[in-house]
Amino acid sequence: MILSSILAATIVVHIHQTEPRQVLGVDLVRIKSHGRVPGEIAGHVSLEPTDGMTRDARFENVDAGPYAVIARGAEPWERAGERVVVDVGDPSPVHIQIAPFAIRLRTTRRGQPLESRVILRNGDGLWEAMVPLDDGHSDITLWQGGRLNATVESRGNVPYHAQRSIVEATTWDLEMPRFELTGRVIDAETHAPISGAAVALEMVSPQRYQLAVSTRADRDGVFKFEPVFPGEHKVKAVAAGYPPAETAFTFSESEETHEVTLTLAKTPMTMLDVRDARGAPVAGADVFVFRGDLSTDFGRTDRNGGRPIFIPENEARDVFIVPLSGSFAVAHVQSGQSDLRLTVPDGSSRIVIRTESDTHDAIERMVVDVRYGGVLLPFEVMAAFAGRGSRTSSGSDGRIVLDRMPPGTYEFRPLAKAAVPVRMTATPGENVAVMTFTRVTN
Fold first, then answer.
1. String of b and e for 287-315 (b: at least 16 CB within 10 Å)?
2. Do residues 168 and 101 lie in contact, with contact meaning Cβ atoms separated by under 8 Å?
């Protein structure tokens, strides 16, 4: 408690109003995401109504760090804020000047008023406000000008983003661009439309702005996204009984409409039911599907441990399950299996492989192929192990360390084809193997 009081500081806020009783309260917000979005409120001071034009507020025992101080009025767009970096010691003074000005927001589509709402965001990430536009327009009073971001949201349309610097009374016309993506989803064999197919669009602008939206195809398999901004995009479709299909395309600056056709091939589906050793569902596990050494699908189990995979007739796949924690599981799955429960065993084994020279010096950056029960673990699976804390290449101590692995038979082979593999039957606890390499001299 004594240490906390020593490290805490005070923020003193001086607010300058243009008329009495404008500001109703002051929020203290901790800056997050490098200041791109408003953070959580760390403190709040309510102001009693007075006729004074200057108001003060204090925040005591504030931890050091970056904050925003935001004065707020009765309407959600009546906001004015300043950033402050809190240091330990003397109070940090903040001055906020309320500078009201009128702005009219107008949203239109193909020249007609668009019933919508606009999300206004301060360009410095200090505040945001939702403004409803019932008849395609709204007159509001802003307290703080500068760079503003606007997102127009309306039923049946892709959200539209715009930016503008505004410091005085004006009208901001937000016309939805006349750029659209249209397409159809059809069956690969019959070319019949697939009604109700789920369609997702991922857009990336030349400025690296990203947006993901989704819709469903109508009874004729037709879908549309509008507006679509220029850039490099991907569109994906999926329907019951069909694996996903995806296509990439460029929406150029010169075109208003782009058309695509997504063809789905009906394929036998196997529903995986992934459980741990106690029978509980394993949610969020990575699912890797391979045909030989070729990856054909990747996804994650849902909250019930389920994940559909699609295997063409008369074919088979190797399926690898890697949970966020625990060990892993592998299965050889034939096409046509409707439901398959896979159990991820407890990761009770720790495998340590020491790579060293014939003089017992550690060898760094050594990578080995790993087989479990005779099945080669693909690079993607090994990368997933590394992502949850295992060391899949040798460090300065020459050790490769695989944590939370299932007991069983393993084989380790250096990437040099002629190298002799090391075999191990791993049991619960730590299992150590040594790989010795002879130095070759010319």
1. bbbbeeeeebbeeebeeebebbbbbeeee
2. yes
Sign of the Cα torsion 34, 39, 41, 45 reads positive
358 DSSP 8-state letter: T
In the CATH hierarchy, which fold is given to the domain comprising 101-176?
Immunoglobulin-like (2.60.40)
Where are the chain's structural domains?
Answer: 2-97, 101-176, 180-264, 269-344, 349-437
Q: Find the Cα–Cα–Cα–Cα dihedral 143, 149, 154, 158, rounded to 10°.
A: 180
Helix (H, G, I), strand (E, B) or coil at 124: coil
**Lookup: tokens for 115:** 């019933």
| Mean pLDDT computed over 257-270 | 95
DSSP 408: E
pLDDT > 70 in the chain, percent? 94
Dihedral sign, Cα of residue 368, residue 370, residue 374, residue 376: negative
Distances (CA, A) of 209 to 156, 178, 255: 21, 19, 19
The two three-digit tokens of residue 124, written as one number = 């410095």
Q: Which CATH superfamily is domain 349-437 in?
A: Immunoglobulins (2.60.40.10)
Instruction: Report the candidate in 288, 392, 399, 388 with the shortest Cα–Cα distance to residue 347.
Output: 388
Mean of the pLDDT values across residues 322-332? 92
| Amino acid in position 427 | T
End-to-end CA distance of the chain: 68
Q: At residue 442, does pLDDT exceed 60?
A: no
CA–CA separation, 173 and 105 (whole Å): 6
CA atoms within 13 A on the CB side of 340: 22
Q: Are strands 231-239 and 306-310 parallel, antiparallel or unpaired?
A: unpaired
Q: Which CATH number fits the domain 2-97, given the four candidates 2.60.40.3880, 2.170.270.10, 2.60.40.10, 3.20.20.480?
A: 2.60.40.10
Binning pLDDT at 50, 70 and 90, where does residue 275 land? very high
Distance from C-alpha of 317 to C-alpha of 269, rounded to nearest angstrom: 12
Amino acid identity of residue 423, one-letter, is R
Provide the CATH topology of domain 180-264.
Immunoglobulin-like (2.60.40)
What was the pLDDT predicted at 5?
42
Q: Tell me the fold of 269-344.
A: Immunoglobulin-like (2.60.40)
- The verdict on whether omega for the bond into residue 113 sits within 30 degrees of 0, i.e. cis, is no
Q: Return d(Cα 387, Cα 229) in angstroms, integer.
A: 35
Who's near 289: CB < 8 A, 6+ residues apart?
A: 295, 296, 297, 298, 309, 317, 318, 319, 320
pTM above 0.85, yes or no: no
